[in-house]
Please model this.
Amino acid sequence: MATSLQSSYQHCHRLARARARNFYYGFWLLPRPRRDAFCAVYSFMRYCDDVADGQFATAEKVARLREWHDVLDRALAGDYNDNRILPAFHDAVQRYQIPAEYFHELIAGTEMDLTVRSYRTFEELYQYCYRVASVVGLCSLHMFGFLDPKAKLLAERCGIAFQLTNILRDVPEDAAAGRIYVPLEDLEKFGYTPEQLVAGVRNQAYRQLMRNEIARARAYYEEAAPLIEMVEPESRPALWTLVSIYRRVLRVIEQGVEQEVEQGVAHAARQGREAGGTESAANPDYQPASISDMEKMVLVFRAAMMRLQL
Model:
């Protein structure tokens, strides 16, 4: 039985509510038509992440993503094949005139995640970030609504800032899985090796490296700051909330790096006194940087007050 448009949107809402984490806090603040569209587009994108994070072999994951390319093209031609996401997704793409190329880029970026284990330069990393995050920002821009064409570049930069934040949040977890997203040229610049990163060494070189990466992410946030005033007024509180959440996560990461290094240096000093040790691994109980749901709700409340004042 074909899925009705209404039931498709309802299904996408359930998926977004269950899985969207930070983004769903921003969705709450949008008028219903825009919120519906965000949930539908998110649900399409979520499938890519689910494939990448699944338990299949890499070859099977790549095959599924390439099949999703074909599913995308058929969906945009009106062939949904009883998929519960696609009617709402197609409606949202048409309603907000989102270019199909953004979704193809996203799928290509997800495939990069399966086959590329490290990036030599920031330019190489930028391409990855563009594909998995900037295109999300560009899709969002269409759903937010905008008039100034300069908003597109700022949406791209905002996506880069978000993805750099994600990368810095997950440095230990990714290193343990054999992935190093921090550019290798940056590790060399600060005298910190990939082997040290995988081992969780927290020394002064690590501190300087991470300070550099955090400063780069913060610079992209600053460049993208005018974007909030370029989207439709009714969408500004949602975008402000998303940016505020991610910027706060970056601050938590920064605080965590300083604490980790201080603990690591102190522990290394103790080891040095006891057995000639010079380095220390990170805390084995490490948890990725995040902010609490309560903090997010406070930001949502502040944004809701902004909306009432528009």
